[in-house]
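User: Thanks for the earlier help. One more: HTH LytTR-type domain-containing protein. Can you show the sequence and predicted structure together?

Assistant: Of course, both are below.
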Amino acid sequence: MSELLKRIEKLLLTEKAVIAKDGTFVPVKDILYLTSKRGDVLANLAGKKPITLPGNLNAWERLLRGLFVQIHRQYLVALDRIEGTFERFPEEPEEEIRLTRAELRAKDDECEISLRGTEKRFPVTAVYGQKLKKTFGISRFHYLAPENPSDRALRLYGLIDFGWRELYSLDKNDKAAVEAFKAKWDIKLFDKRRMLSYFRLYGANEINTKRVIKNLIYQMWRWIQKGIEEPSDGNIRSLWYKIKGVLAQHSNILGSGDVDTFYSTLQEMVEDQELFRYKDFGFMDMNEPYRVIGKKNPEIILASEKLGHYLFIKKLADAQGVSFICLKGEPAVISMEYFSDDLKEKCGGKPLTVFSISDVDPAGYSIERNLVRGLEKAHQISKVVKLVDVSAFTTEEIGFVRFPVVSYEKKGDQVKPIVPATMGQVTKGRAWFEEEINDERLLTEKDKGGGWKVFTIHGIESDAADRDIIEDRFKAGLQRLAKLNKTAGKAKRKIKT
């Protein structure tokens, strides 16, 4: 419990401020480094004059431990601002220089570092070099490649590209060389001592489970790209079982929540960090049966969020030779990767037109937006056409097909959600109604008394729409598109002549 409290305290400290000698407050997150000069401790901030702090450097090192690290008897630097390292000695000493074993060790423990926010370089002396390497979980400073943005991004994210120099020149067809390389660098073969040397949880003699998972995933991806590891022929869970085996080998780091950590980490690496794609691992797309690339007009897409529309939109798409996809809810990233690549292969760079069938509610509009965003990563979208909206229904029909999305009470500027709705859902629902719908037929209002009113925002299921209307709208949209393309074609021919 005491260790947990210490970690919480460190997290809270980053959002706090320290008091300078003159009584001003200095935010901890703004400090680049602390230095000792003539008995004073100076806090150095980007583009500002140094600020004098009370006490001595040793006291500040204890107070800021975990956020700052001492690299020299006169310097204490912010960990999250370290960008790169530079050797303090020439790579190959001149012939007349002869270094002792102790001097060689010191050479390996010394370097200069750069910090984000200043062009100044800071010396790391041998006394503090070992501690800095342990903090980063590295054995040599050359793992921190200087002035390389890609390497820096990997390091800051906690990744180590094991054996990258050897991997670069490795012949994937030389089985003996590949086996030797894997025996040396395969994380799955590391014993606990080696695991701790690279993946130690800062401030504890424990292995950082999430960092191990991140590096295992990254190494597998690197080796698949090189061709020395076979892509998966299963789903994402098959990768988890490989990683679970490594964690089980170090039984003290296998926890009940590790499967959730694995999935969230993989999602983070693919969708947030964009280091690679799910498709790179060869994972199966479970939604593959519910999408087809059109033979005549592949750049035109008919999409529905509901699996129940599969046979309906397949028939429409096949008749017109266009592409179609049933999303089964929010579009899965892996499905969008495969679908987008298939479209790229057949469309020849043509911009896409999307005809969309989705519910008239916040979730349905979100699904459509995410479909378009997924396609926009590799394609230009010329137009998105909604085939189901409020105009597809009469007022009478809306009265009996609408359903409540969210309810809330309002008095003046005060807004309170009505259970089971949350305030976030109310805010999202109101924004959707005001920005996208603004149709009083989907908003009901009742007096509650005391100046309060109860409002309910309604939605409409796309299944409630007449399919003949959807089909007519789709065909009319195709005709308009054909006319536009014909007009554009004539304009291009005139320009050429």
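User: Great, one quick takeaway?

Assistant: Confidence is low (pLDDT under 50) at residues 7-12, 89-99.
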